[in-house]
Write a structure and sequence with these properties.
Blueprint (H helix, E strand, L loop, with lengths): L4 H9 L36 H4 L14 H15 L1 E2 L5 E4 H6 L1 H6 L3 H10 L3 E2 L14 E4 L1
Length: about 140
Amino acid sequence: MVQGIEDRRRKAYGKDYTSYHYPPSAPPPVRHPTRPDPTSPHLTPPHPTSASLSTPPSTHTPAPTMDVDSEVTKLVEEITRLGDKGPDGKVSVKFVKLIDDDRCGNIFEAIIGTLKAARRSNVLTFEGEFLLKGVHDDVDITLL
């Protein structure tokens, strides 16, 4: 004979299995099937003691931050070194010349991002939203 779910519950929890966990007057709370019970004693943090309140020295090394201003300054120096003065007195360089230069390749890890940051700072200008090698080789980058 196959036992029903009611029989298995009675066998596991006793005669009145519904009152095993909850008082008869209160309905059982609805629990999300995948979230842990927030009232579980296993999820509450331990009470702080005086030993745990003192913070040990941190061994975590923060990630290096990029100094955008110094990168832009270096970029201006390299454009001045590689570029030519135009009739208006502004220095400009072709994008391909800047990208293919070995010294620029060693200095700048992400030269496209540095160019965009310099344009946002109104240090230089170029046509288009961004520059891609091969497609935008003949685009002039002009210092303001």
